[in-house]
Design brief:
The protein has 816 residues and is an alpha/beta fold. Helix content is 43%, strand content 18%. The longest helix is centred in the first third of the chain and has 53 residues.
Amino acid sequence: MSEQDPSESREHLDDTVENTSAPRTVEGPSTTLVYNRQSTPRPETITILPMQETVLFPELVMPVVLQRQATIGAAQRATQNDHPVGLILGSATGDGEANDAGPEALHRVGTVANILRYVTGNDGLHHLVCQGVSRFRVHEFFEDDHGDLKARISWIDEPETEGDKQIDARMSNLRARALQAIELMDQPSRELANAIRSIESAALLADATAGYLGLKPKEKQRILETIELEPRLELVQSFMDYRLEVMRLSADINKQTQERMSEHQRKAMLREQMRSIQRELGEDDNVTEEAERLREALDKANLPEDAAEQTDRELRRLERMNESSAEYSMVRTYLELMAELPWDKLSTDAIDIARSRAILDEDHYGLDKIKRRILEHLAVHKLNPDGKAPILCFVGPPGVGKTSLGRSIARAMNREFVRAALGGVHDESEIRGHRRTYVGAMPGSIISQIKKAGTRNPVFMLDEMDKLGTSAHGDPASALLEVLDPSQNDSFNDHYLGTPFDLSKVMFIATANVLDTIPGPLRDRMEVIEVPGYTREEKKQIAKRYLIDRQREQAGVTAEQVDISDAALDAIIAGYTREAGLRNFERQIGSIARHAAVKVAEGESGPGRIEPSDLQAIIGARRIDDEVALRTGVAGVVTGLAWTPAGGDILFVEASRAPGNGKLTITGQLGDVMRESAQAALSLVKARAETLGIAQERVDKSDIHIHVPAGAIKKDGPSAGVALYTALVSLMTDRKVRADVAMTGEISLRGQVLPIGGVKEKTLAAHQAGIKTVLLPERNARDEEDIPDNIREALDIRYIGEVAEAIEIALEPAET
């Protein structure tokens, strides 16, 4: 059975109640308090009506609906014989009455009830109105001749509490809480409140309060089974405290909702009145319509609280402005930007490591160490999306694929890709934006690109970070400190917005050609990943896999109309381009493709296969001379190795002497560090003159001139020390330097060879120049794994720890 609202059940019941002497009733939410009831006989055997959701307390009246045929028959016979029944809670099946599991599924404590009224409703349901009499305890269940469930019971009398101060105190407290709960009801009942005030029995107060509390059946059963009054009052009090707190919270929520609704309705009414006034005055209604459009867009943008308050203030200002006002367009532009920014829009990451590896291999040839680090970065982000990932910075020569690596990462993560070019930026406002007090104010490049991306978590590439400038308008590199700090960029402050914007979900990637010009604090926030130049073989493979097809597609020609042979590619790499990257190489391929396009446009079938002999007619004469031809068998000329932002290169160190008094002249646009290396090399030669077999007079009476060709190019750094020392020794001893040997390394005044950087780039340059033997500092042996396998196999790499070893390897025997 299930508890029914008395107001619903009474639709089918008479106003008079049988078996009573016109009792006075007071209705509660689901029960009725009854007073002046007649005394009831106390039989030891009663008919049991199993209940599922109904628990009736003594002295309360409650409607009950019967559905099971067996229960209906038992109730009818009890009504006809004017016998009380026992209502007892059983197991649940979803219907109003207990299921057919048997007496073992029923509780042992229930309520004896008198049937006040039995009515069959218009809906075919059988209704009882029952009045609780007393608690009872079951000793034994059995069935009678009609199959009705019976039980032998003992009646449970209420304990005597007269004069118990503890009980009186609990009654007073419970009564006060009950009255508070009645006041918080949707429709407070004055009669119910008066009835609660007039109850003098502790047992009735506890049961009556539990009856209208709206507890679950199991909770009511606990109260019914609690016989002692003090524990019963305490239990009802605990349920009442919880229910009272819920009702208070519900009332507060309803009040807040009503206040918000009232405020919204008030604002809507005022806006409508404002529009009416503007129409009466004949003013243009475009401003109001524009404000409404912006209000709707801002509501959809789900702005944070601070941003919403600011835009609301600006929107109210806009509503008061005239459309012809100069400030009107500024405020409208600001509000449109705020509505278009992706405050709560995030791309869904779809990181699959196998797929990411395939994307990186598809887009880039080689770069195995770089790809491995990127995959590690993606794997960590997949396992810990909320972690503070490091800012990656790709450092390498131009044209090696730094920007395209960023695009591949975005594709692997299923994110949008945006890029901000920082080269030449010298104003802090280009990063942080302009304040809106200035005419022509606009947001900075960070916010502008986030708006372009349309999501709050794109892959954001900060390109050419090493080319940031400074001026009187601020230092943009310092402005980037906040952007690239994961602990701060969740509240990035763009001056134009005037409110924080969360950049913590953005994946920033920086690129640079060199690290020296990046300020230390900014460099410290990034994880530097060096992207080296490509070998000749790598360039050829990249051209065959990517560049030729791309240039043919751009020129609109097919593989049958133009095809570049491997020999022609080698000739282009060696004679027309010398770079770490691929840009000039791709331009030369593009020139060949365009040459073929001209032929095809003129009606020919195209040049077909391109061989080395065809290159001069198509892209001109060879632009790079073979350095081997420049190396003459003259004492004092040494081949050195250098690192440049465009990759590795070779340089020649030339030394000559003339009669004089020991003066040293250095030319070739050399920096201070390289000049100091030349002075240190000469001092070391003078100190070891006797060991080297050089006459002291020859050293003292000679003016030395050191020159490094390509004087228009500035050169600096300590790594030419070994080459400078070798050139001076070769000059003073008249021993020639082997033409197929190149060297690099810094020297000390003790003759030690110190380690240098750019080992891979320098060995690549040596290989491309036809060098056979390369001398490297002994402490650079750890960098050998960076050198490609095919370069290691082609070169004879010697590691030296002392300059004497360089002289022994590089110089030819003295002529006799």
